[in-house]
Design a protein that fits this description.
Number of strands: 2
Radius of gyration: 24 Å
Strand order of the largest sheet: 1-2
Number of helices: 10
Oligomer: single chain
Strand content: under 5%
Amino acid sequence: MKTFPKPLSAQEERWYLEQYQKGNQEAKDILIERNMRLVAHMVKKYAANEWDTEDLISVGSIGLIKAIQTFDPQKGSRLGTYAAKCIDNEILMLLRSQKKQSREVSMYEPVGVDKEGNEICMIDLMEAETEDVDARIARQQEFQKMRKLLSSCLSEKERIVLRMRYGMQDGREYTQREVANRIGISRSYVSRIEKSALLKLRSKMKEE
C-alpha cells in the first residue's frame, strides 16, 4: 500500500474547511489528499476480504469525499471522526452488494432435477408459495430428499455451512462471515465449502 501525506493539524483542517465552504475547490482537494491516510487505515479492517486493496481504497475515497462535502464543523466533531463513519459505510455497502450477488448465484445453483428432467435450484426448494398443492408437495419431497442427502454425502463441516447459510438449522439464514465466526474459519473458506457442498448435492440428486 502506498504512503499517503500526513494528516492536517486541527488548525489547518479548520482553515481548509473554511476555504472550501467559501467555494475554494483547491482546499477540497487538499482535504481529500491529507485524509487519504485515514482511508488506508479503514481499509485495513477488511484486509481478509477478497476485494483488491486498491479497489477498497477507491471506494473508501468516495466516502471521504462525501464526508468533506457534508461535514458540519458547527457540530463540534473533527472531520476525521465523521469521515471514518462515511468511509466505513461506503465500503460496507460495496461488501453487502458483493455478498448479495454471491448469495444470488448460490441460490440459483442447480442441485437436482424434477420428474420432467428440469433442473431444480436451491431457491426452488426454499420458496414455492406460488405453486399449486401438488407441485408444492413435490417440491417439499425434493427438499426432504436433499436434507437426507446432507447427512449421507457431505462432511460435517459442509452440513453445518449449508444448514446455517440456507436457514435449515434454526430458520435464520446466516451470512458467510457469520458462519465463519461461528465455526472459526475464514469467510473465503466458508465460500469454498458452500460451493463444493452444492456441487456434491447437485451430483448426488442427479444420480437418484
